[in-house]
Specification:
The structure holds two protein chains of two kinds.
Chain A lengths: L4 E3 L2 E4 L5 E6 L6 E7 L5 E8 L2 E5 L6 E5 L5 E5 L8 E8 L8 E2 L3 E5 L1
Parallel strand pairs in A: 2-11
Antiparallel strand pairs in A: 1-3, 3-8, 4-5, 4-9, 5-6, 7-8, 9-10, 9-11
Chain B lengths: L3 E4 L2 E5 L4 E7 L6 E7 L6 E7 L4 E4 L2 E6 L4 E6 L8 E11 L1 E6 L3 E6 L1
Parallel strand pairs in B: 2-11
Antiparallel strand pairs in B: 1-3, 3-8, 4-5, 4-9, 6-7, 7-8, 9-10, 9-11
The chains are: A mainly beta, B mainly beta.
């Protein structure tokens, strides 16, 4: 069974640009979660999508947004990039509405220059 | 508030020794406590979890204990091996409106042969 996949693996942008990160959940999972992992820090919750709807959002500014598509894949968009947005962005998926047993993808390393 | 404290931040042991990582949570309503292992360049992988109706759970060399009264839980790894070297994260559900997972800041475990 294929795990959670994320693309791209690495992304380099400059300040003020926009970044789009993509995630495909495990087949059968309808919930997708996004986390930010800055260097040397833990995982900070960004967004939770389930059945196409945003269910919860962490303490991040509105320039962090996303969506979930009918096939349950998801996009994370970061507008007006700032240097401190440089981090590993992790996507996880789980069964419908269940916060337990989240399975993580390998992440997208975003570097903002 | 939403807070999961994790200690120690780094832990060095000799192969064959035991390793213990401790976490404390603040939300008395937390009911799910997973542990994740993150190897270099990879996303976190769920290694064991425990729910609030259980005090201890074991899976081969890994065990987790939960003390609900004191609001802390611990990961125990016995007979450590070099391949156990990684960063370990604890997490707890936070039940304010919508549930979400709050992660500890991670413990870097180094097992020396």
């Amino acid at each position: 069974e294929a795990g959670v996949t994320q693309s791209p693996t690495h992304l380099i942008k400059t300040r003020g640009q926009q970044a789009t990160l993509r995630c495909s959940p495990i087949s059968g999972h309808t919930s997708v979660y996004w986390y930010q992992q800055a260097l040397g820090l833990g995982l900070q919750f960004l967004l939770w999508y389930d059945e196409g709807e945003e269910r919860n959002r962490g303490n991040f500014p509105p320039r962090f947004s996303g969506r979930q598509f009918p096939n349950y894949s998801s996009e994370l968009n970061v507008n007006a990039l700032e240097l401190e947005d440089s981090a590993l962005y992790l996507c996880a998926s789980s069964l419908a509405g269940a916060l337990n047993e989240q399975f993580f993808g390998p992440g997208t390393r975003l570097t903002v220059l | 508030g939403e807070n999961v404290e994790q200690h120690p931040s780094t832990l060095s042991v000799q192969e064959g020794d035991s390793a213990v990582i401790k976490c404390t949570y603040s939300d008395s309503a937390s009911n799910y406590f997973p542990w994740y292992k993150q190897e270099l360049g990879k996303g976190p992988q769920l290694i064991i979890d425990i729910r609030s109706n259980v005090g201890e759970k074991k899976d081969q060399r890994i065990a987790v204990t939960l003390n609900k009264t004191a609001k802390h839980f611990s990961l125990h790894i016995t007979e450590t091996q070099p391949e156990d070297s990684a960063v370990y994260f604890c997490a707890a559900t936070l039940n304010t409106g919508f549930q979400k997972l709050v992660f500890g800041t991670g413990t870097r475990l180094l097992v020396s042969p």
